[in-house]
Structure formats: structure tokens, C-alpha cells
Write a structure and sequence with these properties.
This is NAC domain-containing protein. This protein is an alpha+beta fold. It has three helices and six strands, in the order H-E-E-E-E-E-E-H-H. A hairpin with a 2-residue loop joins strand 1 and strand 2.
Length: 189
């Protein structure tokens, strides 16, 4: 992506719906149409363990977004993405009520298939369903079948039960490290 990548300014959150991901990002990518802002990078899924996505994929909250070329086998050097049985959802356009995409859920496994160990990393993989679009008069789709991925780490249930332990951002950690043993009360006007 190079210099075309756009970083969101502070305070802006990338929080698209499934429909928006398919219609405003995956559809233009698949048909080689311009789309803005061009903030979702292209990645080769086979090169990265999910924990290595930071700084390479678009991060919003605890979710990573990126485009990748579709592959039947989704292996990496350290593991593989495995499709969870029976978990596929249709993405339907609210305006037209037509199916415009499919969302598949996958889980990352460490080790070699099929004997890997399941991790807490999940991926939602979005596929374009061209039957919901009028493609007459538009460009032919890119010969590369693109998918849009949303990857996140599922928190363990025990963390939720223990009073909602949360991780601090690096900026919060830096701030907390500057506080001495005696915290001073600061009041703002």
C-alpha cells in the first residue's frame, strides 16, 4: 500500500458493520474500483501468526482488518486457520434485502494440521457474493479472489468472571510508570 495508507486521526474509530465491509470495501477491491479512505492493507495471511498483525493490519480496538487472497489452505509457519463447522452467515444488504456476501468464522490452531492446538484467535472472513449486485456495465472482477478479514483474540471466560480485568494501552502503562508511590490528587478546573 505504501504512501496511500491513511491513518485515522485520534478519536476516530473504524467500526463498520458486516454490510459496510462488503459493500464499501470488499466490493470495490474485487472490481478494481477506487474507494476511499484506502485504510485496509493487503497482507499475505500465510506469512503471519495472528499475534504478529500489529503494525501490519488496520487496528481498531482489539480487531485487525486486512485484505488477503483467498486460499483453501490457510496455513502459516506456526499454525493454520481452521474453519469451524457450520458457522457461516449471510451478509444481507439492508436497502435491497439481497445477499451481498458471506461471513465465515475460523479459529487459529498452533502446530500442523490436523493435530494442532486451538488458540483464542478468531477470524471472520468476508466473501463477496456477486449474485446480489447488478454487475452489468461495471468492470470485470479482479481475477484474484479477495477476502476481507477481521481478526481478534477472544478473551478467556475466566478473565470476565474475575471482575473484568483489562489490559492497559502502552500510553496508559507509560503514564502509570511515571506515578510515584504516593499518588497526588489532581483536580482540573
Amino acid at each position: 500500500m505504501g504512501s496511500e495508507r491513511v491513518n485515522l486521526p485520534p478519536g476516530f474509530i473504524f467500526s463498520p458493520t458486516d454490510e459496510e465491509l462488503v459493500l464499501h470495501f470488499l466490493y470495490p477491491k474485487s472490481f478494481l474500483l477506487p474507494f476511499h479512505p484506502n485504510i485496509i492493507p493487503d497482507l499475505d495471511l500465510s506469512l503471519f501468526h495472528p499475534s504478529q498483525l500489529n503494525g501490519k493490519a488496520l487496528l481498531s480496538g482489539n480487531q485487525y482488518y486486512f485484505f488477503t487472497k483467498y486460499k483453501k489452505k490457510r496455513g502459516t509457519e506456526s499454525g493454520y486457520w481452521k474453519k469451524e463447522i457450520g458457522v457461516t452467515e449471510s451478509v444481507v444488504s439492508a436497502d435491497a434485502g439481497k445477499k451481498v456476501g458471506i461471513k465465515k468464522y475460523l479459529v487459529f490452531n498452533n502446530g500442523e494440521a490436523p493435530h494442532g492446538t486451538e488458540t483464542s484467535w478468531l477470524m471472520q472472513e468476508y466473501h463477496l457474493c456477486t449474485c446480489g449486485f447488478n454487475t452489468r456495465g461495471t468492470q470485470k472482477p479482479d481475477k484474484t479472489k479477495w477476502v476481507l478479514c477481521r481478526v481478534y483474540e477472544k478473551k478467556r471466560d475466566s478473565e470476565d468472571d474475575e471482575g473484568g480485568s483489562t489490559e492497559l494501552s502502552c500510553m496508559d502503562q507509560l503514564y502509570m510508570s511515571t506515578l510515584g508511590d504516593e499518588e497526588e490528587e489532581v483536580s482540573f478546573p
